Amino acid sequence: MSGEVVGALKSVLEKVQQAAARRPSTLPAIQPRLVAVAKTKPIEMVIEAYQHGQRHFGENYVYELVDKAADPKLLSACPEIKWHFIGHLQKNNVNKLLAAPNLFMVETIHSIKLADRVNNCWQKKGTSQKLNVMVQVNTSAEVSKHGIPPEETSATVQHILTKCPHLHFVGLMTIGRYGYDVSEGPNPDFLLLSSVRKDVCEALNMPLEKVELSMGMSTDYEHAIELGSTNVRVGSVIFGEREYPDKHTTDKNAANGEETQTKMEKLTVKEQ
To answer: Residue 256: is its pLDDT beyond 80?
Structure first.
């Protein structure tokens, strides 16, 4: 496992740099951030990547992020880890997510109501540090995808800036349509998100370089960076194909939920 993860991480970082160098000069010169997504992978792989310089990690599911973030072994080995939540967030899971240690960013704010919920819950933590957030935009207009319509983005961002004092608006995020063939030309979802950023910046009088773009995953992160992405979410290229549990394992994980909750409660007490 050791050589595979380290070698893959090094390769991805090199490709990130090369893709950034290919960006046109008209795009903001923001150094792309690599978020390593260890979905379904053991914490030993996260620790290994951390020990070789990786700091930003992402998870799609609240339970999995909370479970890994609260693990004593990981907390000891990775004191400067920064967790990104990149999956769909339901309002009833906000408190659970925000209790996770070292939560750095929620990339999937998909409504004003969710923004308010996250803002209020973060306020109750009593920390002076704002929580970084991105607004998720449904650029592909697919019913199966979450996110706000492009035309509602400026209003949502304005609400966060003016009505959510405990949140720090960082940028825009999209998943986009799966399986796009880049040989057909620039990905239309990436182009649209970039266009939405321009509209937001013009409407709210913000400089382009102050609004990041989170777009691009394992199959298209280089292309996304070339089109202006500042935050790519890469998993299987670094950690290998995901290993989804069978029913027996799923039942076992559900049974372990109480143990995870206990760990979180202990951490919450310590933070207070």
So the answer is: no
- Give CA–CA dist 39/68, Å, rounded: 10
**Residue 209 DSSP code:** G
Q: Are 218 and 239 in contact (CB under 8 A)?
A: no
Interaxial angle between packed helices 43-51 and 2-21, expressed in degrees from 0 to 180 and rounded to the nearest 10: 60
Burial 28-54 (b: 16+ CB within 10 A, else e): eebebbbbbbbbbbebebbbbbbeeeb
Q: What is the pLDDT of residues 202-236, one digit of tens each?
A: 999 999 999 999 999 999 999 999 999 999 999 99
pTM score of the predicted model: 0.89
Distance CA 59, CA 67 (A): 11
Q: CA 240, CA 5: separation in Å to the nearest integer?
A: 8
Measured CA to CA, the distance from residue 58 to residue 221 in angstroms comes to 15
* Per-residue pLDDT tens over the stretch 46-56: 999 999 999 99
